[in-house]
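Researcher: Good morning. I'm working through a list of sequences from a screen, and I'd like to move beyond sequence-only analysis. For each chain I'm collecting a predicted structure so we can compare shapes side by side. This is the next one on the list. No need for commentary yet; just the structure.
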Amino acid sequence: MPVASVGETASHEVQVTAEAIDAFAELSGDENPIHLDEAYAAETMFGGRVAHGMLSAAAACASRPAGVASPVSRQSTIRSTSSGSRS
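Model: Good morning. Structure tokens for this chain:
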């Protein structure tokens, strides 16, 4: 198994879908309307549904490329995109 060297970088994208948010809400029991109700969420400062924090963290954990030993440290950037519009 290859080991990352100092200075090497890698990237990985995970698309968090409405279906993933719905499934996570069911699994976790967190049914806050900011996650599940588009109309409610559209009126918040976010302008649309927001993924659960732990779902986002799990996506960040999945960023380790397959077949590469876990690095000593990892910096993850979570970028949010929304199809909802803000007025």
